[in-house]
Amino acid sequence: MLTSCTTETRQATPSAHDPAELSAGLLAREAWISPKFLYDALGSRLFEAICELPEYYPTRTEAAIFERHGADIARAAGAGVTLIDLGAGNCAKAAALFPLLRPRQYVAVDISTEFVSDALERLRLRHPGMDMQACGLDFSQRFDLPPGVRDERRLFFYPGSSIGNFSPDEAVAFLRRLRGQCGDDGGLLIGIDLDKDKAVLDAAYDDELGVTAAFNRNVLRHANRLAGADFDIRCWRHHGFFNPDEGRVEMHLEAERDQVVRWRGGAREFVRGERIHTENSYKYRPADAIDLLERGGFEAARIWTDPRRWFAVIHAQA
Ligand code: AVJ
What we know:
Number of strands: 13
Oligomer: single chain
Order of helices and strands: EHHHEHEHEEHEHHEEEEEHEE
Strand order of the largest sheet: 1-4-3-2-5-6-13-12
Bound molecules: N,N,N-trimethyl-histidine
Structural class: alpha/beta
Strand content: 25-35%
Distance between the termini: 26 Å
């Protein structure tokens, strides 16, 4: 596994993405690309743009919950923790909690190594005294935190409902790995998107402006660069919709004509209308979210939500 951390002495590697995994998905009978490949440097920026869209409610709704209940949440989570931010991206969500949580140490983990390292460098300027480090790794796999990460009172911070990218069973396995890394004095502060009206979800994942479409199609640019593929991006169409039977939003890319795509490690024919599955985003009912955390080995202590009950922030103890 690729692990790289920004310290004074060690340089970050450009990416924690594995081209072999990309290749395997493209060769599967029903082609898929893991959503982690959405986050190259441009993809991370496009995701930031998604968060600004009127249709994309999760970021705003979660921020409003932290805004309204921040003091309460910080009291539950405790001050002086080792704050480990999973999928830190631009680090903005964690930084907003610094005044309340006053972490002893901040560790920003993201698969998009370059993006998170740049974000952390900027954050250092604003908090010169704080112990921080960036870490480029794929935490969806088994992972080891670098030796510099304190092991007392670890608080994993996993906002934005990224847990929705895992199937419920994968989510439980992932949570158990976190539980194993946080000791008995640790915890988890997590954002989970809740089940809601299909029309709201459809709009959130297929916005009017086409930013989500660009975000999804950008995965092919990333594949072209990472695996030397020759996807013609113009002939792939975005789909993003809620699948109520599966309780999840799905993103796909649909071939608009027959074509052969080649890359290092393989080639494949796609017929017109054939799709590549690029993301699932599971939505939970509050009770099921708590159940998930408990199956993952945590004790779900408290849940905060917004007046429309669209999103939940949960603090769980080890
Ligand atoms: C970052 C995984 C939480 O599922 O809502 C946004 C990614 N995909 N629009 C989500 C995403 C399409 C996002 N997560």
